Amino acid sequence: MVKKKQSSALNVRRKNTKKLVKTMIQSVILVLLGVVLFHAVFDVESYREPDKTTWKQQNGFIALSYFGVGRSGTSKLVAKSDLDEQLKVLHDLGYQTVSQQDIIDFYSKDKPLPDKALYLSFEDGRNDSSLFARPLLEKYNFKATFFSYADKLGDNKERKFVQPKEMKKMEKTGFWEMGTNGYRLSYINVFDNEGRFIGMKNENELRDKSNVAYYNHYLMDFIRDENMIPAENRDEMNARIGADYENMKKIYTEQLGYVPSVYMIMHANALGEGMNRLVTEANQDNIRGLFQIHFNREGRAYNSSRADLLNLTRLQPAPYWSTNHLLMRLREDSGEALPFITGNEEDSARWNVKDGAAQFKDHELILTSPPGRSGLLELKEAVKSEKLHVSAQATGNVVGKQSIYVRYDRAKDSYIRITLDNNTLQVEQKKAGAAPAVLLTRELDPVAWSSEDLSFDKASVYTYEQTSAGVSEEEEKYPINIKDERKLDITLDGESLTVRVDDEAMLDKRKIDDSIRTGTVAVEAEYSENNKKENIYDARFENMEITAGDRVLFSNAPRGWQGAADRVKSAVNAAIDWAIETF
Q: How far apart are CA 142 and CA 122, in angstroms?
């Protein structure tokens, strides 16, 4: 009886302890959220106008547009820390932001721009974008345009979107101008993966996008039937598209007091680029009547002085891009030889960049490939020991190639290469003067991802034959924005090779050619042809450690208290992110 009472008392104490810990964690989260909200509401600084009399440049400007900003980042939202790093680099390189009126005057009145002119914007109208981008605009005295959808305005149910009252406050600071992505995000002529006709759906009705194979945006085509034959005539199409623009005009006028001057049509790269001529004309008539600036295209950042105000282009940096990835893209678009960032100088000094750009950031090595080519990073120190061990977490995107070379001898062109390529492991050996020989090819366990991670990027007009055939096996593979995480463990002992992935032996003491005896360690990044949108790739290796015998040649892995502190920090960040998303 006494034992039962003691056990019961012990259980009560345990429950009370758990409640106390839970309450303390919740209190910490609420305090942190309160601090963030306090600063968002009461810390109001004003934009400092630049001295435009010093502006002399008349060649053009770059335009960057972020889909959204999150505290820690997601497959769709860039992390605040990454955005901070990117904006800091641009600021330090001398970029100055320009306003909508600056762009209008540049094209219509031949007024000059700053030497390095940047048009900055944030799409989709999200609260978190406003919250997390605001202090960065203040920090670098940058001006940005905040884009929204008209149908999200004045709706109390749409809590994650900024409302007109807040927009007006944002404008008063001088850091923000308003723009529009249109009336709404809606899809027509939708077919599923099996070629079945779904019809027309709005964004909220297409939560599970993984089953969608073909579709188009509401303003981009005639409404068609299951045989892809137009189900409306020209007059009906004109009236439907005109009503969309009229609804947008009505809502902005009522809610904001005016229609924004700048427009980014959804989706980009379609209007005037192969879509139906009559649908193009219907859109262009409405656009000319409502807007002064139109960013019609996406994929390139640079707009020259010869560009059309109603056919401008912007670059949308993806959340998974490193800062060097952005700089690599800007170098290609603008033709400027922008310098890359290296990060930790001590770690960087141990390596030679043979091609591409390398950043050593905290416990991560990020190697960015040049456009259309592979990037290569080579450890400076030669490996003299017979026994070599390399371990790392490979955390780059699934769609792309990240490789580790061991006994890499550039002079002889011999090596052992371990590659992760679109969720497939490949191990090769190359003897001097011979072609690479494959030792192993194995598809790894599937990478988990949510349909919410999927971004639509293949809107077009399809034939009946295409839609009825359903999606191909190649198209069913991973979206380009999905990250992977694989633990690699490579051991070379004499002529014996062992490769483990996620603690599972893929090769166990496999004999390699005895001519591959010497060489160093290298890592490689290469884009995948499965990525039709981007030919630059970031290979990422976290907690990498390279040892030869008992000697550590390189390590960026946290140790002791640092490792424990990182784990605690990660857990706290995850809890705060959960709270933000939930409440």
A: 13
